[in-house]
Design goal:
The protein is of the alpha/beta class and about 260 residues long. The protein is about 45% helix and about 10% strand. It has helices at about 1-30, 70-80, 105-115, 135-150, 170-175, 195-200, 210-225, 235-240, 255-260, and strands at about 50, 60-65, 85-90, 115-120, 160, 180-185, 190, 205-210, 230. Helix 4 (about 135-150) crosses helix 5 and helix 6 (about 195-200) crosses helix 7.
């Protein structure tokens, strides 16, 4: 009887220990899937974002490269006419003094002063995952100095969209070091109005470029999206980022690089 009781107690102890271990394992992995591996305590989003909240009737209309300022301005004015706001991801090289055409600076100043926002597409249109770490940092952070010089004050660039959507762990490490909140990708990329409308859903990030065909697509889809009640917001609003804090202390690339020990 004593032997049977001992075996029973041993089995019961093993059962309880297995249960405790299982519960602890479940608790350890109970991180919301949408946060991925790079979430921070006060930020429910992964570092690399493809879309916003699928439960909110909000979308973001974004524009990359920005080679042709005529279409940048027209797209911005069109979206604003529907009560919406855009997020632009220009290349840093296009914002340098020597690259600006008459009127370009004024367009960017109007956009920055509006409820729309500016991020960066890096300095040159190259696949960032193929760069050295030093050049990853240069391409991602030098546009901050160029943007400040363009606008005449410090305008924090908080999100970056790498050319071609390139992404890997090394680039993410550098971008976090550079102070970016998020890498922004997209879930809708087309200039076919029917396709765009079919794919757009709550939280969608729509990708466009500064070209006539993209503008014509916007002309076709905006009345429909407005009729369907979508709120067209910036990436910052879509992700509930804190308010933008502009100031007069201009960013200096060399000083920033030195502060990181490069």
């Amino acid at each position: 009887m004593i032997r049977i009781r001992s075996v029973f107690c041993l089995l019961l102890a093993l059962f309880l220990m297995t249960g405790i271990i299982s519960c602890r394992a479940e608790e350890a992995t109970a991180v919301p899937e949408s946060r991925g591996m790079d979430w921070q305590e006060n930020d429910p989003w992964p570092f690399v974002v493809l879309n916003g909240d699928r439960t909110k009737h909000q979308i973001t209309i974004s524009m990359d490269d920005c080679y042709e300022m005529e279409w940048v301005e027209k797209a911005w004015e069109l979206v604003e006419s529907y009560g919406g706001h855009m997020t632009f991801y220009p290349l840093g090289e296009l914002l340098k003094e020597e690259a600006l055409k008459p009127g370009d600076r004024e367009i960017w100043q109007k956009i920055a002063a509006s409820a729309s926002e500016i991020g960066t597409h890096s300095h040159h249109h190259r696949k960032m995952t193929k760069l050295t770490e030093d050049n990853m940092l240069l391409y991602s952070k030098y546009p901050q100095q160029v943007t400040d010089e363009l606008l005449g004050y410090h305008y924090p660039l908080r999100t970056l969209r790498p050319p071609y959507g390139s992404n890997n762990a090394a680039l993410q490490r550098v971008l976090k070091k550079a102070g970016y909140h998020h890498v922004i990708r997209w879930d809708v990329d087309s200039t076919d109005p029917e396709e765009v409308l079919r794919k757009t859903q709550n939280g969608s990030i729509l990708l466009f470029h500064a070209r006539e065909k993209d503008y014509r697509c916007l002309e076709a889809i905006l009345p429909v999206l407005a009729e369907e009640g979508y709120e067209m917001v910036t990436v910052s609003t879509l992700l509930s980022l804190p308010p933008l804090e502009e100031n007069t202390q201009m960013f200096n690339w060399r000083e920033f690089k030195k502060s990181l020990g490069y």
